[in-house]
Amino acid sequence: MTIDLKGKRGLVMGVANERSIAWGIAKACAEAGAELAFTHQGEAFGKRLEPLAASVGSDFMVDVDVTDDASLDRAFEALAARWDRLDFLVHAIAYSDKSELQGRVLNTSRANFRNSMDISVYSFLDVARRAHPLMKDHGGTLLTLTYMGSTRVTPNYNVMGIAKAALESGVRYLANDLGRDGIRVNAISPGPMKTLAGAAIGGARRTYKHTDQNAPLGSNATLEAVGGTAVWLASEAGAFTTGEIIMVDGGYHVLGMPQFDKLPGA
Questions:
Q1: Fewest Cβ atoms closer than 10 Å to its Cβ: which of 81, 83, 177, 192?
Q2: What is the number of structural domains in the chain?
Q3: Which residue among the candidates 157, 173, 208, 252 is catalytic per the annotation?
Q4: Does residue 95 have an active-site annotation?
Q5: 259 is an annotated ligand-binding site residue
Q6: DSSP three-state, residue 200
Q7: Domain contains 96
Q8: Among 95, 122, 147, 208, which one carries the catalytic annotation?
């Protein structure tokens, strides 16, 4: 049983820049020996992604809008034309209107709720269905990203907390559906990280500082730590792990309250 990805091929969806969690995962997978393909949305993200993809030896990039069936069909047709199999897929895609990631969840609009669920949750089911034919004969791994706001109220996370709860349920249902084909489905749940997506949430800097100061390990997770977890899950060492939400947050999720020396008046 080895923890490397030599000879494996993976699709990474959702790299925004070099600070993206998706990039941390892609970089770790490439260093572990994987051959990678990437998706991006729009020309601007494509320009940011191109040098990153090149740095890990990848020349396969395809523009994808996960709300557009035709766009997804073209992407997976191109992937199937390039590769006869897919060993792992990383889904790092989520979205909510920035104006609704502050204040009260009570004020979530119907339009943003629908859009958030479509992009952040349904897209994972949709890409899993398209990846399935490339995995079913030899098995594979589907990975997505979540956050503790799925199960515990987090200020300003609002509809994204509801979306992540649905995503985590989707992980479990997909794990059951696809397990008979040797396909494992898991989610990684990092704590707050300094990413483009994280910055959209109201009070992000204060949240990051709070968890950094209070996590049992005394730090928020790093991109390298999240990447290493993804390598393990996609490797043979993760052969019997499926349907799980893997916490990579310095242990913050075990706390019931802040550390004693961080309590007011301590």
A1: 81
A2: 1
A3: 157
A4: no
A5: no
A6: helix
A7: yes
A8: 147
Burial (CB < 10 A; 0-12, 13-18, 19+), residue 189, is buried
The answer to whether the annotation marks 14 as part of a ligand binding site is yes
pLDDT at 28 over 70: yes
> Crossing angle for the helix pair 69-82 and 123-135, nearest 10 degrees?
30
Question: Is residue 97 included in any domain, yes or no?
Answer: yes
Instruction: Give the global pTM.
Output: 0.94
61-63 and 88-91 beta bridge pairing: unpaired
Going 200 to 158 to 224 to 178, the CA torsion angle's sign is: negative
Known catalytic membership, residue 122: no
Q: What is the pLDDT of residue 193?
A: 78
Query: The CATH number of the domain where 157 resides is what?
Result: 3.40.50.720
Report yes or no on 105 lying in a domain: yes
- Packing angle between helix 110-117 and helix 159-178, nearest 10 degrees? 30
Mean pLDDT of the chain: 94
**Amino acid sitting at position 238:** G
> Would the annotation count 164 as a binding residue?
yes
Can you give the residue range of the structural domain that contains 200? Answer: 9-262
For 90-116, the pLDDT digits (tens) are 999 999 999 999 999 999 999 999 999
- Whether residue 132 contacts residue 86, with contact meaning beta carbons closer than 8 Å, is answered with no
- Asked whether residue 93 is marked as a ligand-binding residue, the answer is yes
Say which residues have a Cβ less than 8 Å from residue 86's Cβ, sequence separation at least 6: 9, 10, 11, 79, 131, 134, 135, 140
Residue 220 CA to residue 171 CA, distance in Å, equals 24
